[in-house]
Design goal:
The complex is a heterodimer of chains A (236) and B (308). By secondary structure, chain A is an alpha/beta fold. In chain A, 35% of the residues lie in helices and 27% in strands. Chain A is built from ten helices and ten strands. In chain A, the strands form two sheets. A six-stranded mixed sheet of chain A has the order 6-7-8-3-9-10, sandwiched between helices. Chain A has a four-stranded antiparallel sheet with strand order 2-1-4-5, with helices on one face. The two termini of chain A are 33 Å apart. Chain B has 308 residues and is mainly alpha-helical. In chain B, 76% of the residues lie in helices and 4% in strands. Chain B is built from eleven helices and two strands. Chain B has a two-stranded antiparallel ribbon with strand order 1-2. In chain B, β1 and β2 form a beta hairpin. In chain B, α1 runs parallel beside α5. Chain B is globular. Chain B starts with a helix and ends in a 10-residue tail after the last helix. Classes of the chains: A alpha/beta (236), B mainly alpha (308). Chains A and B meet through α2 and α3 of A and α6 and α7 of B.
Chain lengths: 236, 308
């Protein structure tokens, strides 16, 4: 296992209000990691900075051996980071088919690349709706589409921001099941979500942040053993 | 009467298709980059001058058209790289002020280079005369050159439709129009995509200017009147929608042309003479604005809104 992602001393500010104060996070290739914390603690900001969507004030982000701070979002995307954003953000004027066709790329020539066809195998429900526009889908279908759209870029790192938010319990289970299969296939995943029990089953390592700083990090077993962390930092 | 209606309907179609060439670029620049480009009409004017000047120099309409369109594309590229990239992030007021300044600069520059007199642009010799069209058992004459414009307009509209609706680049353009940030995060270089769209829009302007050159005068200020019509078209069609631009152009083109040709006659048949004489032309010239108000009343986002 080699270092895939290494964030060190990351600082991000919106104008004069600083959100991240020297955040550190590291991930190995093939690993599934989580970023936990209450709302407004800087999780989404961290992900946005990682994708180049938010300017970085100070600190370093190394991805696959390259310093990506200051890169434009499209270059980071082509380097292999794919975002499944909060709120899903499907395109209302593209069909399901087009979402998958438009962004399909296999830049690292992966042997078993994600193609639109394989995404339809993963989510048969999407196949039934291929001619529908992005805004004609249910919340769960939109989530599947957002994941599929990220997968067809064949990313080295898949980032999911609140992927199960606002979904019905059954659909949520389906998404968790899918993430488990991706993980088993060796996909590196960074997840932000609030269902800690599920994340313990899914991920290897967890990082808890509060007010823009890391306050705890450890393995799934450690997080499972210490429910005090849940109360103190996650409000559960 | 049939001859008149048919001729005016074809003129309306031809005018609508040329409007579409302008509106297509305008609606993409406005819809995707959220940038109001008042100087779009100036690209049309400068494009027409390029075509006319090149056609005179080469003594060939076709060479002139090719050179002029290419020249306008290069001008569009320079403008996008130097000016418009700075404007996308600004508010609409800055964009309006900057592109209005461009109109003044373009008009003055054209006056300095080519003088105040309109430039003459002759249609190709082979298309100078009328063609005979057998219709409803009658023979019907229509200028060959106008038929060519209709043909080119339809071909470009079809090509544009395929490009936007079927190609991957078209999907990126539509994705960029609805959510720029997400499109970039998925690895698409939206900045260069914008440049390409802008250059393409400039080339379409020059194509319209060059094709219309032999029918209208190539002169300073020709861009302003057509710019207003192009804005009406994209507002009716829905900003950012190519399909909306096509439908809007055909509606505005035919309504305006048929209105001006037939409304005075129609009114004379129903109203007393002097009332019809004053009302006819006045009503004809505001007809498309009434139409726009009516469409916006029922569909405030236009006929084919690009954003949900």
């Amino acid at each position: 296992m080699s270092g895939l992602l290494e964030i060190s001393a990351l600082e991000v500010a919106y104008g004069s209000s600083q959100v991240l104060f020297g955040l550190d996070l590291a991930m190995a290739e093939g690993e599934a990691a989580t970023l936990l914390g209450r709302n407004g603690m800087g999780k989404t900001t961290t992900l946005r900075a990682l994708c180049g969507l938010q300017p970085v004030k100070a600190g370093r982000i190394r991805f696959a051996g390259e310093d990506i701070v200051g890169w434009r979002p499209d270059r980071i995307g082509r380097a292999g980071i794919a975002l499944v954003p909060e709120g899903r953000q499907c395109f209302p004027n593209l069909t399901v088919d087009e979402h998958l066709l438009a962004f399909f790329a296999n830049r690292r020539s992966v042997a078993e690349a994600w193609t639109p066809a394989r995404v339809y195998e993963l989510f048969p429900r999407l196949a039934e709706r291929r001619k529908n526009l992005g805004n004609q889908l249910s919340g769960g279908e939109q989530q599947m589409l957002a994941i599929g759209r990220a997968l067809v870029t064949n990313p080295r790192l898949l980032i999911l921001d609140e992927a199960t938010e606002g979904l019905a319990p059954l659909v949520r289970e389906e998404i968790w099941g899918c993430l488990g299969r991706l993980r088993a296939a060796g996909q590196s995943i960074l997840v932000v979500d609030k269902y800690v029990e599920k994340l313990i089953g899914l991920a290897d390592r967890h990082t808890v942040i509060e007010r823009g700083q890391v306050v705890w990090r450890g393995s799934s077993a450690e997080l499972d053993a210490d429910h005090g962390i849940w109360h103190r930092y996650l409000g559960i | 009467m049939t001859q008149l209606i048919l001729e005016q309907a074809l003129n309306g179609l031809q005018f609508g298709l040329m409007l579409f060439l302008l509106a297509a670029g305008l609606t993409l620049v406005f819809g995707i980059m959220d940038c109001i480009n008042l100087a779009h009409g100036s690209l049309y004017m400068v494009g027409a001058y390029f075509v006319a000047a090149a056609a005179q120099a080469a003594d060939s309409f076709w060479i002139g058209l090719g050179v002029g369109v290419a020249g306008a594309a290069v001008l569009g590229l320079l403008l996008e790289l130097t000016l418009f990239r700075q404007l996308y992030r600004r508010d609409h007021l800055s964009q309006v002020l900057a592109t209005f300044a461009l109109i003044l600069i373009a008009n003055e520059a054209v006056r300095v280079i080519w003088g105040p007199a309109p430039l003459l642009l002759n249609p190709p010799e082979a298309l100078a005369g009328p063609v005979e069209l057998p219709l409803f058992g009658e023979t019907f004459f229509y200028p060959a050159y106008r038929l060519l414009i209709i043909g080119v307009g339809l071909a470009v509209a079809g090509l544009l439709y395929l490009l936007v609706a079927k190609s991957r680049v078209g999907m990126w353009v539509r994705a960029g129009a609805s959510n720029r940030e997400m499109t970039e995060a998925l690895g698409i270089n939206v900045r260069w995509l914008f440049t390409a769209v802008f250059v393409f829009g400039a080339a379409l302007c020059a194509l319209a200017g060059g094709l219309l050159g032999p029918l209208l005068a190539v002169q300073v200020g020709m861009g302003e009147s057509v710019l207003i019509l192009a804005f009406v078209v994209i507002i009716i069609g829905g900003i950012g929608s190519i399909r909306g631009a096509l439908v809007g152009s055909l509606i505005v083109g035919t309504v305006d042309t048929l209105g001006r040709a037939l409304l005075p006659t129609l009114l004379r048949a129903t109203l007393p003479g002097d009332a019809a004489a004053t009302l006819g032309p006045a009503l004809a010239s505001i007809l498309i604005y009434l139409l726009m108000a009516g469409i916006l009343f029922f569909k405030p986002q236009g006929l084919f809104p690009a954003r949900a």
